[in-house]
Amino acid sequence: MFRRHFWSIFIVAAFPAYADSCIELVPHRNQLPMPGIFLELELESACILESGVYRFSTNLTRSNTTTISPDNNLIYPRLILDHEREEVTVKVEAGLGSGWDLNIRLRYLKDWVGDWDHFMRQFHHVTGLPYESRKVRPDGEFLYWQYRPENNDNEQFIWITKTQKGNGDYVLSLGKQHGAFLGSSEVKWSTRLVYKHPSADDLPTISSGKRDYGISTAAEGSGVWWDRNIQWLVNLGLVHAGETEHTLYEQNRTFFSGGGGVSTSFNDDWTMSIQNLIASPRYHAPGLELKGMNQWQSILAVGVFYHLKHQSLMLAFTEDLLTNHSEDFSLIFSWKGQFGK
To answer: Which of 54, 204, 288, 328 is least enclosed, having the fewest CB within 10 Å?
Structure first.
């Protein structure tokens, strides 16, 4: 539904814009199905919208992943993931007054064979980045394989080759602005309570089918670094996730989710942000090879923002800093408009 109406969203324009000193961030979360079915606390500014101020944004994310987790003691790998993901997110925010605001995210996702495999193979070859999994996986085949041998007589597996698509989980976030941070009125800080409502229990790569809850605290400030005016953000949070049936391995019901970022403006029109999205493992699984499940993630995101009179546009890319802990590569396009009193 959201994908079908994606381009029509751009007719929303001519809203009065509000310039502020809040950091601009790349809207992103881990695109691997294993961690992605749970709530992730995306990086959000410590700023809280004023009463009567509203913000509307949408972003399109395309990602590509090929990873294989072999186990020398088993006939089959414990995990094979070869897929592309398209995720459309619509986000609506509203200032409630008295230092409170509210936002909701609606998503539409599609996991399928895609058409980036050849490009990604060449990209890794030219840059010299690791791509061992891509050498042994053929192009043009979607596969999500999760395997666990119970004993010699009973083996459990998840085996999906059919395109997965549908509405993603709904995420509701309630934020509260606090007073001076550690005695400094120049540093903003706020706390957010986040709730994820499952969209479906029959889409193993898209939704856990369970409710998740999270809490995060953000601190944000600015300074002069390397002769440039820099804005910075630190986000720290915890997620308590519902126990999903879409896994064969023991789930870590509570995990860390946060990160940080910096942003600088080149002029009134252009801004660049660099950030790192960090999270602890969502699963407890054997061996070091199951990196997308039982290892920490570290996702680098670099975004360039162009400011229009009433809106802003963003183009960004992400890179997995710890091989196979998140998607290999993502491209993100975002539009945002703000209006109100």
So the answer is: 288
Mean pLDDT across 3-23: 41
Coil/strand/helix, residue 296: coil
What mean pLDDT comes out for the span 274-294?
91
Distance CA 304, CA 268 (A): 13
The model's pLDDT over 252-277, given as tens digits with 9 standing for 90+, comes to 999 999 999 999 999 989 999 999 99
Closest listed residue to residue 13, CA positions, set 337, 258, 340: 337
Region label for 114, one of left (φ > 0), alpha (ψ between -120 and 50) or beta (otherwise): left
Output the CA torsion 184→186→187→191 (10° steps): 90
What pTM was computed for the model? 0.88
Residues 172, 213: Cα–Cα separation, whole Å: 10
State the pLDDT at residue 72. Answer: 84
As a whole number of angstroms, the distance between CA 211 and CA 284 comes to 20
